[in-house]
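It is worth pausing here to work through a concrete case rather than discussing structure prediction in the abstract. The textbook approach is simple: state the sequence, then state the predicted structure, then interpret. We follow exactly that order.
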Amino acid sequence: MPLHNIFKKTRKNSKPKPIPLVVADIHEKNSLVISQLKKSTQIKLLIKPLKIADYIIGPVAIERKTISDLISSMISKRLIQQLSQMQAYPKSLLIIEGDLQEVLDEEDNISKAIRGLITSISTNNQASIIQTKDYEETAKYLITLAKQQLKPNQPISLHSRIPKTKNEQKQYIIESFPNIGPKKAQLLLKKFKTLNNLFSATEEDIKEVLKNQTGEFKSLLDS
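Step two, the predicted structure:
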């Protein structure tokens, strides 16, 4: 009869980890990118007819072009139409797959046209552009993008390190004001002792340390 370990912790109602979804257009079904995505256990792949884009991941519409596809769609002006349609989504991405530099090094009309196209797409915010060397790298980018959709948006911190001691923290706060470095921050702390004393001090008192920067300091406190 097997013994039951009463000290072993059991997980109750543990939720399975969510798996991000990659939706691929049916025209991509025979591509090597799809074969790579099918091998991945990190995403769920759904293949169906898409009116817009080759892939949809969350709010992102993605168009994938090999070098030959890029050139032919550029000549036929189909790419511009596709990029325009992708604007229906909050974000759009163009993946250029293959050795683009080899084409650009030719210095012919095609290379000039591609440069102009890429510049236009980037500057007009039609889409972000990623260049990949092959289908394997394209699949890796798609998987990475899908996994990122599960992460909650975190506010960006302006501080990379928060000091531990109170004096360091006070100096850190003062240094966050424009044009105040460690030396002036230390002088202000030496004179006023506390942040409350500093922030409630008169302009004349602060001027002894900050000189002509006092007005900017006070206006930021009062704004």
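Step three, interpretation. The mean pLDDT is 84. The chain has two domains: 21-148, 166-222.
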